[in-house]
Amino acid sequence: MARQTVSRWNLRDFLACLRNAVYVIATATDCGASVESAGVKRHRGALDVASGRGPFAIALLVSASGACAQPVFMGIGRLAGDSFSLAHAISGDGTTVVGESGVPGATSAIRWVFLAGPQSLGSLPGASVSAAYGVSRDGSAIVGVSGGRAFRWTGPTGVVAVPMPAGVASSIAYGVSADGNTVVGSMVTSTGLRGYRWNAATGTQDLGLLNGGTFSIARAASANGTVVAGFSDASTTGPQAFRWTGPMVSIGNLPGGTISQAYAIAGGGGTIVGDASGPGGPRAFRWTAAGGMQSLGVLPLTDSSAARAVSGNGQAVAGYCGGFVGLRAWVWTTTAGLSDLESVVVAQGGDITDWTLQTAAGMSNDGLVIVGTGSGPSGQEGWVARLRVLPCWANCDDSTTQPVLSVSDFQCFAARAATQDTRANCDGSTTPPIINIYDYLCFMTRFSQGCQ
Fold first, then answer.
1. What is d(CA 421, CA 275) in angstroms, rounded to the nearest whole number?
2. What is the pLDDT of residues 150-179, one digit of tens each?
3. Which is the most buried residue in 81, 201, 341, 389, by most CB within 10 A?
4. Which residues on neighbouring strands pair with residue 85, listed in sequence order?
5. Angle made by CA atoms 55, 79, 182, in degrees to the nearest 5
6. Domain 73-386 architecture
7. What separation in angstroms does the CA of 349 have from each of 32, 345, 387, 388, 406?
8. For residues 52-78, b (16+ Cβ closer than 10 Å) or e, as one string?
9. How far apart are CA 373 and CA 224, in angstroms?
10. Strand, helix or coil at 292?
11. pLDDT tens profile 263-299
């Protein structure tokens, strides 16, 4: 019998799988001294599991995993020789970041996992540039654009063009279902720009237009791929956010606004987020069938906001604000409203020295892992932040151990109220005295509602 051998490629696949297996363990540590003390070398944010010590390192990491409580915050790095990187999305399980790395005018789609660092996905045949915009729940399927054509990447197939109908001049893929089998995006047809939905069973489906519209763009798909969100112009009012389930239906505008654009959709398809115009300027919105379109507001010293990601249950949203102070990433929850993401990361022990978190673009299903792009020590770079808990107004002392809500939060609130700390202005009143009995009642109500 011929002796079986393991090819170099299969060995690399095995090591990649090994890296992913260690990821969950490693992210429970501060991935610094504890990891190195376990006998695993660090190389630019990656762990050396290619050495013979890899299997032993896993066992050691298991024993070290409880030693560090600091949440993970780090830049995703760049490919060798590149000057910047951008993070566009993260897998639902929070393990895989996708985006692009490059120099002005030339980028490569990348896939990033903590123990492997950024890896180029390559380009379609005949193309030299690419970018990745969407990823499946477990990171096994990635979509984007290369040389003006939509692509879908998997480990076994590499970068493959998404099939398009005859006559399509160019296309791009923005989103993908949880299982990686349904792709959504836009294509340039003989009649204009059209949103599409593709899977192997149905082929490429033109999603059509809103009444009176001339173009449409599909930006995101629900977990099962049956609900699509995006925007299409309608008559002369400008772009309108839509929800597609067969017919394309506008989800409306904010009060006083005429323009809306949807960029992300929760797993079940019932919550959509994006940005819309209003009397005060562009505002991030969260839409549900029951509550309609809700403005998420702006951070202090900013005058615009945009939502770009939503958790699987629709209860957490991420995006960014703009204004005199520049771009600032934020996270919003139903129990805390809008929070500056830098402040949240620092409050939970993250080290963002020399970083400015400018835009948040992706969020895991549980809302705890957020990715985006910012200005780091070496320039523009994608980043990933792993929170221990989501912001919650009733969690006054910002505790991260269970139970998150306790008598300490009442003591924290009482201390703030006694000193007229504006953080105790639970009901958001603006008439003096700003801190009053209604804030105590408000706090008790929020405490009883709990955190996510």
1. 32
2. 999 999 999 999 999 999 999 999 999 999
3. 341
4. 101
5. 80
6. 6 Propeller (2.120)
7. 14, 6, 9, 10, 20
8. eebeebbebbeebbeebeebbbbbbbb
9. 28
10. strand
11. 999 999 999 999 999 989 999 999 999 999 999 999 9
Q: Provide the 3-class DSSP secondary structure of residue 376.
A: strand
Find the helix or strand (DSSP H, E) in which 276 lies. strand 271-276
In the chain, where the domains are located: 8-64, 73-386, 407-449
Map residue 48 onto helix, strand or coil.
coil
Structure tokens at 261: 């654009």
Region class of 404: left (phi > 0), else alpha (psi between -120 and 50), else beta: alpha
Distances (CA, A) of 322 to 2, 262, 305, 339: 65, 18, 6, 14
Q: How far apart are CA 56 and CA 244, in angstroms?
A: 50
Nearest to 396 by CA among 417, 380, 375: 417
Beta bridge partners of 109: 100
3-state secondary structure of 268: coil
Contact 115, 26 (CB under 8 A): yes
| Gap between the Cα atoms of 208 and 232, Å rounded | 9
> What would the pLDDT profile of 296-328 be if each residue is shown by its tens digit?
999 999 999 999 999 999 999 999 999 988 999
Residue 135 Cα distances to 94, 129, 351, 379, 431, angstroms: 11, 18, 27, 25, 47
Counting every residue written for the chain, the total comes to 452
26 near 36, Cβ under 8 Å? no
| CB-based contacts of 84, cutoff 8 Å, min separation 6 | 78, 101, 102, 103, 379, 380, 381
Question: What token pair was written down for 409?
Answer: 């939060």
Cα 127 to Cα 56, 78, 135, 186, 205, distances in angstroms: 42, 20, 21, 19, 25
What does the alpha-carbon distance between residue 135 and residue 424 come to, in Å, rounded to a whole number? Answer: 40
